[in-house]
């Protein structure tokens, strides 16, 4: 009797789970059947012949767009470029981009890069690449379009906040060789500006620290670590940089689908240490990824005052996997967390002291048209009739002439603004946020002496 009761109890536990899995499988097969029916209807009824491979690739890309901006299906062409082992040099623009509400947005133009020199700014929306609309394309497709051979020029159509006209920028692709660190001595404080977490970034920070500490001698009062507009980079360098100012403990951990499976990165015990000097970290809305890891670690360990505005909020981990001989996927598999378990993704790092940057610039408005996006601007837009080859060539020629006129008008505006900004040079001693950070560190120093 006991065996029968036990068997019935086990059955009651197992059966619902089994039933749910069975229902889930049935639902999946129904959806796949629906997908197959839709493809069949398109193939047989669409008024033009379709490429089935292209159709399925498009469906797969759309699937990943329902996940997050950083996950993507890598088709044959994109995956091949990622896997190529070539000794040739490829040119870049020096911008970090993301997608917001389906629109391509510049997160950060890297300091001294072709993009920054051309006049591109954080928050600029890229609506055209080489006169083609970016509407409907994935982030990876957009990035792929912007890559090219060294020395070649790309034209970007930009919509800037507060403006209605599209601006056009010609940017020459160059090998991106940025100086990761720029440093200054301001009021007996060392200000270290890190533009990107590239290889040996932490070593460059140490070199700058030693140089200025030697120059200041006994006057040395503390450090301002400037991570504003820093888009991130190598995780190892984020750990290395944090380890300069921390003695021990966790720098960052990752949380995957199973919260129990965590990868933890600890402070490195070896290397140069600055454990006692007052420290402020500057961040803003363009500080992302590795920048947020460092700011979060120093904040959680109460090692630094974080000053500025809320950071970008890029706290996810991606991995690339090959799924067929010539295709792959890039998938978000985990999230970064600060030492105290705070998630960075979409939340960012909130400063201890909120200080906005003061802008004294005013944009001159030059209105030519309403700047709106029309059906003809849409990628793969449908033409009113089935065109002959001659009609298609004539239409493309007309569109090209019209765009050329718009570009020429926009260049007149850009030329005026660039000439106005050309002679302006950065000065740490006049940087409002730097000065505020130093004031807070001075206050800390005074309290320590009391």
Describe this structure in words.
InterPro entries: ClpP/crotonase-like_dom_sf (IPR029045), CtpA/B_N (IPR055210), PDZ (IPR001478), PDZ_6 (IPR041489), PDZ_sf (IPR036034), Peptidase_S41A (IPR004447), Tail-specific_protease (IPR005151). Residues 379-406 form a coiled coil. Belongs to the peptidase S41A family. The chain has helices at residues 2-45, 52-65, 76-83, 114-118, 139-146, 201-216, 235-245, 290-300, 389-421, 432-449; strands spanning 72-74, 90-91, 95-100, 103-109, 125-129, 132-133, 148-149, 153-159, 167-172, 181-186, 189-194, 222-226, 250-255, 262-266, 279-283, 305-308, 316-324, 327-337, 353-354. The chain has 450 residues and is of the alpha+beta class. The chain is globular, with a radius of gyration of 27 Å. Residues 1-15, 85-90 and 359-376 have low confidence and may be disordered.
Give a quick set of tags describing it.
450 residues; Pdz3 Domain; 2-enoyl-CoA Hydratase, Chain A, domain 1; 6-stranded antiparallel β-sheet; 6-stranded mixed β-sheet; 19 strands; 22% strand; disordered N terminus
